Amino acid sequence: MAYWLFKSEPDVFGWDDLVAKGDQGEEWDGVRNYQARNNMREMKKGDLGLFYHSNQGKEAVGICEVSAEAHPDSTTDDPRWECVDVKAVKPLPRPVSLEQAKVEPRLKDMALVNNTRLSVQPVTDAEWAVVMELAGL
């Protein structure tokens, strides 16, 4: 299993919106960055991700699961763009902020800390463990 981070603006599509989708989950559509798309192409069903509120909050708030592997993005006819489907697993007991990640030495190499613009990012096993610790899991 691999770990990922999915960024979304909470006023556009937030954690509560994903929770409301239930087991059906939601397409992680609209991504128009090649690196983010390529990350989604690497995902396998069952991989876990951090659901991260960008712009407002700037914090990981929940754990989601990849429920469908890469497929054409339904929001475009351009075949270059693909997406995965994700569903909510559980909220983090304590959200983990970008500021916390930046001051945690064990997360100094995390993509979130070094490339805050990338909307879909890999998370290493070690980084996942640290974020879970900070979140109280």
TrEMBL record:
A Pfam family: EVE
InterPro entries: 5hmC_binding, EVE_domain, PUA-like_sf, THYN1-like_EVE
Residues of the EVE domain: 2-134
Name of protein: EVE domain-containing protein
Native organism taxonomy: Bacteria, Pseudomonadati, Pseudomonadota, Alphaproteobacteria, Rhodobacterales
